[in-house]
Amino acid sequence: MPTYDRLKGFRDFYPPEMAVRREVTDTLESVARRYGFREIDTPRLEPAEMWTDKSGDDIVDELYAFEDHGGRHVTLSPELTPTVARMYAAKAQELSKPVKWFSTRPFWRYEAVQQGRFREFYQTNIDVFGSAEPEADAEVLATAADALTDLGLSADDFEFRVSHRDILGSLLRSFDADVDVRAAIRAVDKSEKVDEAEYLDLLHDAGLEFDRAREFDDLLGVDDPADLDELTDFAPNSEGLADAVGNLREVLAAADDFGVGEHCDLSLRTARGLDYYTGAVFECFDATGEIGRSVFGGGRYDDLIEEFGGQPTPAVGVAPGHAPLGLLLERAGVAPDATIETDYYVLQVGDTRPTAARIARDLRARGHVVESDVSDRSFGAQLNYADSINAETVVIVGEQDLANDEVTLKDMASGDQTTAPVDEFPGGLDRPTFDDFA
Amino acid sequence: MPTYDRLKGFRDFYPPEMAVRREVTDTLESVARRYGFREIDTPRLEPAEMWTDKSGDDIVDELYAFEDHGGRHVTLSPELTPTVARMYAAKAQELSKPVKWFSTRPFWRYEAVQQGRFREFYQTNIDVFGSAEPEADAEVLATAADALTDLGLSADDFEFRVSHRDILGSLLRSFDADVDVRAAIRAVDKSEKVDEAEYLDLLHDAGLEFDRAREFDDLLGVDDPADLDELTDFAPNSEGLADAVGNLREVLAAADDFGVGEHCDLSLRTARGLDYYTGAVFECFDATGEIGRSVFGGGRYDDLIEEFGGQPTPAVGVAPGHAPLGLLLERAGVAPDATIETDYYVLQVGDTRPTAARIARDLRARGHVVESDVSDRSFGAQLNYADSINAETVVIVGEQDLANDEVTLKDMASGDQTTAPVDEFPGGLDRPTFDDFA
C-alpha cells in the first residue's frame, strides 16, 4: 500500500482553497472580458528552444525541460509571452488589430519556494498587440486596477508605480554613451531590495562613475509628472528623452481619463527586472507597505513579437499572479470566502426517493446547488451532512409528510421548520425558503 | 528572426476555438456544481512512481516523464485518479463524506494523434468518494446526462451504455474458475472494434473454450433489465452474480428516479478498457452511430483509493473529454458558437476621449463587453474594427455631437442611427440600444 507525496512547490487545491482561487480568477477574467479582451488558451509544453535560443536569460536555469519520446527538446512554459508571440506571428495577417487576448493558466519554474511563490504558479495574462498608442498602456492599467477594485481593494490598499524604460535608458546614455543600459536598469530594479552602497556599486559596474550614479539616482526621485521637465532640462540633448517623457505623461493622462488615475503613481525607480520591456512599465505594490515586494507587474514590450519571428508589433500587457495577489487580498482583509455553500439539501426519510429526486431536479433546474442522499443514511446523519456543507434550506421528504401531501422546510440558520404542499414545491417560486411557507 | 512551431498533438486555442471550449467547460462545471460537486485543482506534475509502480499499465509507455533539477523522477499527469486518490487519502479523516469533487484540466499522453485525440487533452473529472450505494452511480450518470442535455443534445443524440464489471467477472468465473478475468474483459471491450473471429480468439486466449466463449457472448446480449434473470438462471451458483445483477438493476432504477433513465441502456458488452473498474460502468455513444467510438466513459472503482495508500473507499466517477465531446456536438449540429461578441464599441471622433471613456466605463459597470479606440484610428477604421468584433451597438462620440450635448447610437445589424442626450447615456438604462432612443 504505497503512499505518495506531492512535489515540493506544487499545491493541492481542496474545495475551500479552490473557492478562493476561483473567485480571484473569475473576477480577473470578468473584468478583462468587459474591456473586450478575448480568451485564448495555449500549450503547456513548448519547444525548449523558445527559451534556450536566447542565451543569458536566468529563466533557462529554472526550466522544467526534457526530451520527449520523439526526441524533441521540450519544456513546461515558464511564462506566456513567447507562446503568444508565436501564436500572433502565425496568424498576424488575418487577426483584426488591435489583438486583445487574456488567458489564465499555470506556469512552472524550478526555483526556491517561499511565501506566495511556488514552482507551479497561476497567472492571468492580459495583453494588447498592435497598438503603440498610450491608450493601450492605459487600458492595461485600467483593466488591472478595475480587477483589483472588483476584488474589494481600494486606493488605500494598492498603488501602481509607473516608470518608463526609455526615460531610464535615455538618461543613462546621456551620462555615458557606453553604459550597459540593461545592467543599469537591473540595478534600478534592485534599488529597493539592496542597501545604497550596493545599489551604487551595481550602477558603477554597469559603467557609471559614482558621482554620475548618485546624480542619476537623484533624478529618478521625481514623483510628480509636472516635474518631469527637470529631466529634459538636465539632459536637453539626450536622444529620445523628450519623447519618452511625453509618452509617459500621455499614458498617465489616458489612465486619468480611463478613471484609474488615483491608482497610478509616477515612480521612475520602478524598473521591472526583465530585459524585454521597452516603454512604460509598472508594478503593483501594497499601499500600506506591509507586503514589501511587488505583487505583480506589466508594461510595454514592443520588440518581442519580432524576436519570436513575427513582424514588428507593439505590445503591452500585465500578468497578475494569483498567489501574490492572494497575499494582498488577505493583508487587506478582503480575501474571498473559502466556505462551501449549498442552497438546498433534500433529505429522504423512508422510501421517498422518487419525490425527493423530483424536488432536487426542479430546484437544480432553477440553477441552485442541491444535494441529496446518495449514501443510504439515517435522518441524523443526513442532517449532519447538510450542516457540514452549509446547506441554507433542508427539504425533508418523509413518508408521513408525503401521506399528507406535504414536505417540511427547515431553515438551517434558525432551525425553524414549516411545511409546504409537495405539489407546490418548488412550484412557481424561483428560490423557495422557509419564509415563503411560514 | 527564429520561428517556432508548436508541438505535434498540442493545440493553440485562438478566441473562436476557445469560445467553444469555454462554453463546453462552463456547462459541464455548472451542472456539476448544481449537483453539489465542489471544484478542486491539482498539480500538473506528479511523482512518476504514482504510475510506474503499477507495472504492466499501457499508460506508462505514454508518459511525459523526466528527471527534474532536484533529481526527482516526475511526470505530467496522464489521468486524474491517482492524484485525487492521493488527496483523498491525505485528508480522509477530516473530509465530510461523501466527498464530491470536480475539476477541469489538461492531461498528457504521448500517443498517436487522430481526430478528437491529442497529446494534450482536456477533461472534466467528476467523482463521488465514500458511497457504495447505487444512488452514487446514478448521480454520476444524471450529472453527465444533464450536462449533455444542457449542451443541447437530446436522447436522440446520445446514449449511455451501462454494464457491470462484477456481472462480467462472475459469469466468466462460472464458466471456468481459472479464466483470466481482466484479459477476458479487455476482449469484451474490444468486441465492437474487431471481427467476431478475433474477438472469440481473444476470449479463448483469456482461458475460455471456444464453445464457452460463444455461450458467454450470447448471454451478454441481454438488453432489458427484466431479462437479467436469464444470467442468474444460467449460473445460479455463480458467486456474486446475483448481487451484481441486483446492483445493476438498482443503479438503473435510481437513474430512472433521477430523471435520466431514457438516456441509459443496458449493454453488458460495454466493458470499459481500464482494469481498475469494479462495478457499474458506462460509456457514452453517439446514438446515430455516425461517431463509432465511445465519446467518454465512467464507472465505479472501489479499490483504487486503497491501492494509492488510502483506506478502502468506494468511488464512482465520469470524465468527459472535451475534444471527443466537441465532435459529438458538431455531429448533432449543436456545437457552441465560435463567434466573438461585443455589446458596445465606443467610437471617438476628434478630441472626445474623456467623454468616450466615461461612457465606456459606465457601460462596463453594467457588465457589458465594451471596446473603444486604443490605436488613434480614423472614423472608418474604427467602424471596420467594430464590425470585425461583431459590436451590437456603436456609440459615436464626436466633437460636433458633443457640442449639442448628444452622442449618436448606431445599430450595427440594421445600420440605423439616432442620437441620445450625452448626460442620459447610459443613464438609468441597463442596456441602452438604438431602440431606446429612436
UniProtKB/TrEMBL annotation, chains A, B:
Domain of life: Archaea
Ranges where the record places region Disordered: 412-438
Enzyme class: ligase
This protein's UniProt keywords: Aminoacyl-tRNA synthetase, ATP-binding, Cytoplasm, Ligase, Nucleotide-binding, Protein biosynthesis
Keyword Cytoplasm annotated: yes
Positions of L-histidine binding: E79, L80, T81, R109, Q123, D127, R272, Y276, Y277
Gene Ontology CC annotations of this record: cytoplasm
Gene Ontology terms for molecular function: ATP binding; histidine-tRNA ligase activity
Subcellular compartments: Cytoplasm
EC number per UniProt: 6.1.1.21
InterPro entries: aa-tRNA-synth_II, aa-tRNA-synth_II/BPL/LPL, Anticodon-bd, Anticodon-bd_dom_sf, His-tRNA-ligase, HisRS-like_core, HisRS/HisZ, HisRS_anticodon
Primary site of residence: cytoplasm
Reactions accelerated catalytically: tRNA(His) + L-histidine + ATP = L-histidyl-tRNA(His) + AMP + diphosphate + H(+)
BP-aspect Gene Ontology terms: histidyl-tRNA aminoacylation
Domain Aminoacyl-transfer RNA synthetases class-II family profile: 9-435
Similarity comment text for this entry: Belongs to the class-II aminoacyl-tRNA synthetase family.
Protein name per UniProt: Histidine--tRNA ligase
Organism in which the protein naturally occurs: Halobaculum roseum
Gene: hisS
